[in-house]
């Protein structure tokens, strides 16, 4: 018997993600994108494995708070910026 994998590719999990995204965009982070939420789940929350049930996956999604996503996205931006050459920042720093 095949075991379902409740990750960001599961249709029911995707529906929960869309609903959470709409809630967060409406009340907390208007610029949040689906890919931001997907990255947060795959690269941080579920990096060591996904949930055993759909209920657990949806519960995890609904417990996400804006401050946690903002912290994650800030860290991602710092990591990506550290990999870029300084010339990519010349316009921002007046060079």
Topology summary:
Blueprint (H helix, E strand, L loop, with lengths): L10 H17 L6 H12 L8 H9 L3 H18 L12
Helix pairs in contact: 1-3
What does this entry look like structurally?
With 95 residues, the chain is an all-alpha fold. The protein has one domain (11-94). Helix content is 59%, strand content 0%. The chain contains four helices and no strands. It has helices at 11-27, 34-45, 54-62, 66-83. The model has no long low-confidence stretch (mean pLDDT 89).
Entry keywords:
single chain; 95 residues; mainly alpha; 4 helices; Post-transcriptional_regulator
Describe this structure in a few short sentences.
This protein has 95 residues and is mainly α. It has helices at residues 11-27, 34-45, 54-62, 66-83.
Total helical elements? 4
Helical proportion?
55-70%
- Stretches where pLDDT is under 50 for at least 5 consecutive residues are none
Give the helix/strand class.
mainly alpha
Distance between the ends: 61 Å
Number of domains: 1
Task: From the alpha carbons, calculate the radius of gyration and give it in angstroms.
Answer: 16 Å
| Major sheet size, sense and barrel closure | none
User: Count of DSSP E strands?
Assistant: 0
- Mass-distribution shape: elongated
């Amino acid at each position: 018997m095949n075991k379902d994998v409740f990750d960001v590719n599961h249709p029911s999990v995707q529906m929960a993600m869309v609903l959470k995204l709409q809630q967060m965009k409406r009340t907390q982070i208007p610029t949040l994108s689906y890919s931001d939420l997907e990255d947060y789940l795959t690269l941080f929350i579920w990096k060591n494995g996904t949930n055993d049930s759909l209920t657990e996956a949806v519960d995890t999604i609904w417990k996400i708070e804006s401050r946690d996503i903002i912290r994650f996205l800030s860290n991602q931006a710092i990591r990506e910026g550290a990999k870029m050459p300084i010339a990519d920042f010349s316009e921002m720093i007046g060079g």
